[in-house]
Amino acid sequence: MNNAIIETRKLSRDFGGLRAVDQVDLRVQDDTLHAIIGPNGAGKTTLFNLISGYIKATDGHVYLRGRDITRVPLHRMAHLGIGRSFQITNVFPNLSVLENVRLSAQALGHDNLKFWQTAKRFHHYEELAHKALQQVGLADRADTVAAVLPHGDKRKLELAILLAADPQVLLLDEPTAGMATEQVPVLLETLRAIRKDTGKTILLVEHNMSVVMNVSDRITVMHQGGVLAEGTPTEITANTAVQQAYLGESYHYDQPAHH
Ligand SMILES: Nc1ncnc2c1ncn2[C@@H]1O[C@H](COP(=O)(O)OP(=O)(O)O)[C@@H](O)[C@H]1O
Ligand SMILES: [Mg+2]
Less CB within 10 Å around the terminal CB: N or C of the chain? Predict the structure, then answer.
């Protein structure tokens, strides 16, 4: 059985003398919401950056459906179907929510329509944008200027921008960071619904363990650059090594995430 959409083998990354990611073997199965958790400095964001091509590996490999993408340049990753969120997203503040999402569909969408079908093409992308806005629960904000959205809605807009490009896998680094506490479950429920409705795989990096427990199919725990444990939420909760790793970090649990 080899239905891993993303796989890493002995993936490593050094920063000077520091090994931030250390021989990580990760298997993300198709059609799952897979979370990577771990204490601050565990190497989660570095692993995320390696998978999405934002930085390059010192050693080891990244595979997308069995294809080695370790050396694929960043600008080609989106076209391969890897959609990642950036901490600073390309949201155009003066454009409407809908226009932002439509531009994303247009920029990365599968443009197989002829150039002379301009109106048809426009409507095609606008439909994709509407669909993405519905999926993230932002349809009633379509005509709002992006700049005036409250923070929680901005994160939803970022998600819609990613979805509109129709990636095979969504990579999200702490999507709930900076959100009001009551908004967090809303976003998580949105992610779960997207997973269910679109069948897309979601790889989620999260510092706060309690955030991912109810939505994840699989959880990988990182600690000091390596994989400490991998399993279902129930297995991870019961794992004593995981509890140890988080010990003394517990004061971070309900703090805003660090980057
Ligand atoms: N660009 C960088 N240059 C030097 N060190 C880095 C860089 N990025 C991350 N690190 C170091 O690598 C380790 C892992 O960091 P990171 O991947 O951000 O962890 P996490 O996301 O789990 O908090 C940390 O010790 C961090 O200081
Ligand atoms: Mg991080």
Answer: N
Co-location of 66 and 125 in the same domain:
no
237 in the same domain as 185: yes
Do residue 217 and residue 151 come from a single domain?
Answer: no
Measured distance CA(248)–CA(259) in Å, rounded = 19
CA distance 144 to 186: 20
- State the pLDDT at residue 256: 47
User: What is the CA(46)–ligand 2 centre distance, in A?
Assistant: 7
The packing angle between helices 118-136 and 184-198, to 10°, is 130
Q: What is the pLDDT of residues 129-146, one digit of tens each?
A: 999 999 999 999 999 999
Long-range pairs of 229-235 with CB within 8 A, sequence gap ≥ 24: none
Does the Cβ of 40 fall within 6 Å of ligand 1? yes
Q: 7: domain range?
A: 1-81+168-259
Q: Ligand 2 centroid vs 184 CA: distance in angstroms?
A: 18
Domain count of the chain?
2
123 contacts: CB under 8 Å, gap ≥ 6: none
**Helix H or strand E encompassing 128:** helix 118-136
Domain stop point among 166, 192, 215: 166
Q: Supply the pLDDT for residue 18.
A: 96
What are 223's strand-pairing partners? 226
Across the chain, mean pLDDT equals: 87
Q: What ligand has the least distance to the C-alpha of 41?
A: 1
234 and 257, same structural domain? yes
Q: Choose one of 123, 142, 166: the last residue of a domain.
A: 166
